[in-house]
Design a protein that fits this description.
3 helices; alpha+beta
Length: 108
C-alpha cells in the first residue's frame, strides 16, 4: 500500500532527503475536503497530483522530517499560509482520539 501526499506539481520538493523519495505520482480530482475550503485553493476543474511512496512508513518518516525541519509546525504541511494553518490547528484540536482515550480510561 502506498501513502499519497498532495504535491504542488514539483518532485524536487522531495529531493531534500534521499531516503524519502516518492516512487511516482498519482492524480485525482479534489473533493470538498474537511472544511469545504481546503488548505490550498480548491481546484475542482483538474486533477491534483499526489506523491506515491513505497510504504506508509517511508511517507510518515518524511512527514516527521518535514515537521522537524520547520520547527515542529505540523500545520505547515497543510498550507504555507498562516491563516490556513490556524484553521487546520483548530480543526485538528477538535478531533477526539477515541482509540487512545479508551487506553487511557482502561488504565484508571
Amino acid at each position: 500500500m502506498a501513502h499519497r501526499q498532495h504535491m504542488d506539481g514539483v518532485l524536487i520538493f522531495f529531493a531534500q532527503h534521499p531516503e524519502y523519495q516518492p516512487t511516482g505520482i498519482w492524480s485525482k480530482k479534489e473533493g470538498k475536503g474537511l472544511s469545504g475550503q481546503g488548505g490550498n485553493a480548491q481546484a475542482t476543474d483538474k486533477p491534483k497530483q499526489f506523491a506515491v511512496f513505497y510504504s506508509v512508513e517511508i511517507s510518515m518518516e518524511y512527514i516527521v522530517y518535514y515537521i522537524n525541519k520547520h520547527s515542529g509546525s505540523y500545520a505547515r504541511w497543510y498550507s504555507t499560509q498562516e491563516s490556513a494553518q490556524k484553521l487546520y490547528r483548530k480543526e485538528c484540536g477538535a478531533i477526539i482520539p477515541k482509540f487512545t482515550n479508551e487506553f487511557s480510561d482502561a488504565k484508571q
